[in-house]
Structure formats: C-alpha cells, structure tokens
Design goal:
The protein is α+β, with helices and mostly antiparallel strands. The chain has two domains: 6-163 and 331-415, 3-Layer(aba) Sandwich (D-Maltodextrin-Binding Protein, domain 2); 165-328 and 428-473, 3-Layer(aba) Sandwich (D-Maltodextrin-Binding Protein, domain 2), CATH 3.40.190.10. The protein is 38% helix and 14% strand. The chain has 19 helices and 14 strands. It has helices spanning 10-19, 63-73, 92-100, 116-121, 129-132, 143-148, 171-176, 188-197, 216-220, 239-251, 272-277, 285-288, 302-307, 345-354, 359-367, 390-398, 404-411, 428-444, 450-486; strands spanning 6-7, 49-56, 77-84, 108-112, 150-151, 154-155, 158-170, 229-230, 235-236, 294-298, 314-318, 328-336, 379-380, 417-418. The strands form four sheets. Strands 2, 3, 4, 7, 10, 11, 12 and 14 form an eight-stranded mixed β-sheet that branches. Strands 1-13 form a two-stranded antiparallel ribbon. The termini are far apart.
Length: 487
C-alpha cells in the first residue's frame, strides 16, 4: 500500500519570508495544529539573537513548521527566513551574487545540496567542529555520515535529510505473474531472476536502465560509488563501471526483459517497443502504464509517484546489494556562513543544530508528517532522519508512510555508502558526466568498447581528480589559516 509524508507547501515559506518566525512566546505547547512542538521540551530563554536563514525556492521544505517549533523552544531567538530564486538546486548563484554585491550572506543555509568544496573555496562556510564536541546527539549520527562533511579534521556542514536510491515495484503485476516480491537484502543475481520472471509478451521486468552508468556501478562493487569513485583513495576504479556496462549488455540479450533493448526499428519499420507498449513516451512511461514490473528511482521521487494516482499498487524496495545492507544514501545538509555576527553565533548554532541532527528538532519535524496533520492540499516527500536516537526512531516508525522496506534502509545507514559525492568531492560531476560517462554510454549502446579504453580513461580521470583535490586542499589550508587568525 502506498504511504505518504506531508510536506508544508512552498507558499508557507513565502509567507515566512514576510512574517519571520521570531517572537517572545514562551508556551511549551504552542501550535499543535502543525504538530511541530513537544510539551515535554524545556524552553530555553538564555539564548538570544537575531538570525537570517537562506532557503532555496527550488527545494521544497517543511521549514515553516520546524521554525515555529524552534520558536516555541527558543523564544528569544528571532529567525528571519530569506527565500532566494536560482536556476539550480544549489546556492552558488545566489551566494556569488550576494558576495559580488558585497552583501552579507544569510547566517544559516537551510536544506542545501550544493558542492561543499565550492562553498569552502569561496570562504563562505563556518567550521563547526568545536560546536559538536561532546554532544550526545551528534554521537547518534552514523560515523560514515559525520565523516562525509569533514575536511582536514574540521566539520563544515551538518546532515539534515537522508534519501536513498530505490526500486519501485508494481506489486499487482508481480502478483499477476505469480512471482515472489523481492527480499530486502536481495542480490543482483536475485534481481536478474526477478525481472526475467516478470517478463512475457505483454510485460517487461525493468524499465530503461541505459542512463544509470553513473550511480549503479557503486551498487555493484564494494568500496565504490558514483562512476567507480572511492572515497578512501580519492580516485576512480573503472572496473566498477565495467561491471555495470557488462551487466547491462547481458540484459540486452534477454528478449525484452529491460525496456531499452526494445528500442530501434524492426524489419517492419515499427520498433519492438511500440509493438509491446504502444506509442507512449516520457520518463518511465511503460512502468507508469502498468506494463513494467520495476523501475529505479529515489525516495525523493515519492511526491511524483504519489500524485500520479497510478492504477496499480506500488511500493519502494531497497535496490539489490552486493553486500547485504550496503544501501546507497544521499545526504542533504545545512551550514553556517562566515557572515554571521559574533553576537548571533550562539543563536545560529542553536537553530542549525535543531534543524539537523537534534532529537527535539527531528521529533518536531516528524510530527508534522503524522496522520493527524495530513491534508489533501499538501505536497508529499520522503524524509529519513539522520539520527539513530531511539525516540526519533519511535516517531519515525509511527508515521503512515514508513514501510518495512524504508526501515531496512534506516536500519542500515551505518552500513550504507554515500552515493552523492558531487556534494563533497571537488570536480567529480565533470569527470563522471564527461569522459567516463560518455565512454560507458557509448559502450552500452554498442558504439564503443569499454574494456579496451578503460585504463586510459581511468588514468586520465585520476590525474584530473588529483588536480581538483590539490586545488581544493590548497584553498582549504588558506581558508583555515585566515579563519583561525580572524577568530
């Protein structure tokens, strides 16, 4: 059964920019309609200040509700949201324009997904290491996630939301084909047998997999992530990409098990795709039409699928795993900017901590998504908390959208691997979507040979990656020296 998570409409953020969410209300049980407060949370009147919070309008968020909950706990902190427009899902354009105009940046950046190396190289990020030391809540964030935002021993951002790559399964089609639903810790061999069993003259097992040469290699070989990148060695191993290229080519031989294999004209001039599915087009169109058993998406796509009101029962499942529990996770984050005035640092930290990994903030945020607060006019999206705190977990488990499949991902956060290195690794997008991606796609579509060119491509990519890291680390050292001198 489809589950869902309520998300406050983007309009509330616009209203927040006009009204703010500061004030001096000290009631502990304020605003229960939004469900963002907890009457057992102690009000803190000692921390005072005025802070601004940058919110990217490109990224819907539940900011309004959590801001009101924060206000109830910290009544003497005034928070002014600043909604900014951008053509991308990061804040580079906005922050660059502010800096060039010699204007202050917001004190805190909320729900961001840009490149930390870019932000740091521009001198925008305030090191946070001293704030999290000896913080019991911080210790409940899995180590792999904490390490993800650390450079040279300093923490520069705090994790706020987790997503995962998943498989959407048409459970009605699977039942019709008399096939067992996937186990949560299934392997790639299991996946192959599953999609073969779900294929016949009418149906196919999995939708188009031709554009997944970037992230699936990390799911097939331990130690790697997007494009075969290894966090520990700071280099690429394209054997991981070859594993996926070869797997994809084997799928193409299985008579329509995977949708991309049906493209191209047949002897009669009409493609096998059109003959099987009709003249439909668009992302995942055969799956949406109920003709394909599964398709790869992300938990961030829940809103999209929920709104489509599909004519079949569907559910998210963990993707196949080479090692059980090694699930791919994506981590969004928040951070403090170097524009913060000294007198407001304590207030900004209180807010930043609250909206990221704190127990109180996560419970407040999750409460806005429980069954009592869901309305028909809300948007929906998945949100997996970054903390393993028992009370947060209990609240998370109680929500109507949280299935056993999603709990499997949550339970394996410490075993998972970070699958969005574009947020933390300098230059990686250029390399993965450049030479590596072109070679992979051309090889998957029969226009090139991956094996014969793999070593040369790997050598070139690693030389470029080393240069990116050198440039960044030089800039990091310069920034840390200057920051220490000024603070």
């Amino acid at each position: 059964m489809k589950r869902f998570l309520a998300l406050i409409l983007a309009l509330t953020m616009v209203l927040a920019t006009l009204t703010g969410c500061g004030g001096n209300d000290t009631e502990k049980d304020k605003d229960k309609e939004q469900g963002g407060t907890d009457s057992n949370v102690e009000v803190n009147t000692e921390i005072k200040g005025e802070i601004t919070v940058g919110i990217n309008s490109y990224r819907n968020s539940d900011f309004e509700a959590i801001c009101e909950a924060f206000k109830a706990q910290y009544p003497n902190v005034e928070v002014k949201p600043i909604l900014f427009e951008t053509t991308k899902d990061d804040a580079v354009e906005y922050l660059t324009s502010q800096s060039m105009a010699e204007k202050d940046l917001p004190d805190v950046m909320f729900d961001d997904a840009g490149s930390l190396p870019t932000y740091i190289q521009n001198g925008w990020m305030y090191p946070l290491t001293s704030f999290v030391e000896n913080d019991a809540d911080w210790e409940k964030v899995p180590q792999n996630i904490r390490d993800n935002f650390t450079y040279n021993g300093n923490i520069y951002a705090l994790p706020q939301t987790i997503h995962s790559n998943v498989l959407v399964v048409n459970e009605d089609l699977v039942e019709e084909m008399n096939v067992d639903l996937p186990e949560y810790d299934w392997t790639w061999d299991d996946f192959t047998e599953f999609i073969k069993a779900c294929t016949n003259a009418t149906y196919s097992g999995v939708d188009d997999m031709s554009k997944m040469y970037n992230w699936i290699p990390g799911a097939m070989t331990d130690g790697h992530t997007v494009g075969g990148y290894n966090y520990d060695t700071k280099s690429f191993n394209l054997e991981a990409v070859r594993t996926y290229v070869n797997y994809f080519l084997e799928l193409q031989k299985l008579n329509g098990v995977e949708v991309y294999s049906l493209y191209g004209a047949s002897n009669g001039g009409e493609s096998a795709y059109v003959k099987k599915f009709g003249n439909i087009s668009g992302t995942n169109a055969p799956f949406l039409a109920g003709k394909v058993a599964s398709t790869f998406v992300g938990t961030w796509d829940y809103a999209t699928y929920n709104k489509k009101d599909l004519d079949f029962n569907w559910e998210f499942y963990p993707i196949p795993q080479t090692t059980a529990g090694r699930v791919p996770i994506h981590v969004d984050y928040c951070w403090m900017t170097t524009s913060i005035a000294e007198e407001n640092v304590e207030a900004a930290w209180a807010f930043l901590r609250y909206v990221t990994y704190s127990k109180e903030g996560n419970i407040a945020r999750l409460t806005t998504y429980d069954e009592d607060h869901i309305t028909d006019d809300m948007n929906y999206v998945y949100y997996i908390p970054v903390t393993t705190d028992e009370e947060v977990l209990a609240k998370f488990e109680s929500l109507p959208y949280v299935t056993d499949q999603i709990l499997y991902i949550f339970d394996n956060l410490e075993n998972g691997y970070i699958n969005d290195p574009e947020k933390t690794v300098p230059g990686i997008e250029t390399l993965v979507w450049g030479d590596i991606g072109v070679l992979a796609f051309e090889s998957m579509t029969g226009r090139d040979d991956f094996s014969s060119k793999m070593k040369d491509a790997e050598t070139k990519a690693n030389a470029e990656m080393a240069a990116y890291w050198k440039t960044f680390e030089d800039a990091l050292a310069k920034f840390e020296t200057e920051f220490e001198q000024s603070h």
